[in-house]
């Protein structure tokens, strides 16, 4: 996991928070806040997110990523690139999406992932999400690689599952990297193991500066 920005509020303090966690499989950008900056985390969480993912179309899994149990799907006639591009078209814009069973969504006051790991059946209702950009990087059966720019609350694992369902194949995330949280991008990121200990002022972004950058990556 990388850390792209550590935002410092006035007066510092030991309180910490993040602007959106990452799945166990995922890597990439994580924005952290310290001190009074934690009170502004909602503004950072509301930004668009960018991802790059490889989708395996040969199977579904119970976690919608490679960490789950595979359910192989027999595909006698794999889709061609034109079919893949048409499928991507169907998921741009405002869509309804069912979160993965292993997600942080609460069901009756309990986290869905905790219930799922205990073997309990979890049924989550679809909810609206926004996909601003969805582009094909490469396709070679049985995998497709795509980039995604999306709004808050979008699950890329669900997107992988649903693209596969649309194509009549399997679908789960084989790899997943978050490349940006709003204006904070992975080319600015510092590997977690390289974050200085202790942190100094030069390692932190003042809150006013960070908030001033939030509109830089707004979707067109």
What does this protein structure show overall?
Strand 7 and strand 8 form a beta hairpin. Strands 4, 6, 9, 12, 13, 14 and 15 form a seven-stranded mixed sheet that branches. Strands 3-5-2-17 form a four-stranded mixed sheet. It has a two-stranded antiparallel ribbon with strand order 1-16. It is built from five helices and 17 strands. The chain has two domains: 2-46 and 183-212, no CATH class; 49-180, Pseudouridine synthase, CATH 3.30.2350.10. It is elongated. Helix content is 17%, strand content 35%. The chain has 220 residues and is of the alpha+beta class.
Radius of gyration over alpha carbons?
A: 19 Å
Round the mean pLDDT to the nearest integer and report it: 83
What would you give as the CATH superfamily of the largest domain?
Pseudouridine synthase
Low-confidence stretches: none
- Determine and state the CATH class of the largest domain: Alpha Beta
Order of helices and strands: EEEEEHEEEHEEEHEEHEEEEH
Number of domains: 2
Quick one: biggest sheet?
Answer: 7 strands, mixed
Tell me, briefly, the overall form. elongated
The CATH architecture term of the largest domain is 2-Layer Sandwich
How many individual β-strands?
17
Indicate the proportion of strand residues.
25-35%
- Determine the number of helices (DSSP H or I, runs of at least 4 residues): 5
Q: Give the end-to-end Cα distance, rounded to a whole number of Å.
A: 29 Å
Helix content: 10-25%
Helix/strand/pairing class, anyone?
Answer: alpha+beta
* CATH fold-type name of the largest domain: Pseudouridine synthase
């Amino acid at each position: 996991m990388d850390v792209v920005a550590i935002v410092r509020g006035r007066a510092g303090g030991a309180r910490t928070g993040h602007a959106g966690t990452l799945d166990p499989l995922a890597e990439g950008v994580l924005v952290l806040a310290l001190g009074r900056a934690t009170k502004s985390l909602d503004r950072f969480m509301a930004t668009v997110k960018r991802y790059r993912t490889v989708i395996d179309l040969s199977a579904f899994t119970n976690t919608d990523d490679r960490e789950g149990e595979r359910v192989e799907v027999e595909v006698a006639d794999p889709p061609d690139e034109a079919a893949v591009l048409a499928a991507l078209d169907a998921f741009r814009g405002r869509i309804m999406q069912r979160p993965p069973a292993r997600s942080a969504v609460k069901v009756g006051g309990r986290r869905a992932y905790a219930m799922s790991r205990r073997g309990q059946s979890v049924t989550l209702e679809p909810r609206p999400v926004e996909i601003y950009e969805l582009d094909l990087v490469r396709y070679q059966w049985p995998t497709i690689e795509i980039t995604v720019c999306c709004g808050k609350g979008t699950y890329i694992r669900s997107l992988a599952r649903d693209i596969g369902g649309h194509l009549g194949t399997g679908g789960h995330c084989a790899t997943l990297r978050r490349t940006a949280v709003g204006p904070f991008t992975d080319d600015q990121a510092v590997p977690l193991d390289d974050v200085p200990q202790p942190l100094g002022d030069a390692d932190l972004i003042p809150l006013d500066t960070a908030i001033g950058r939030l509109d830089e990556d707004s979707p067109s």
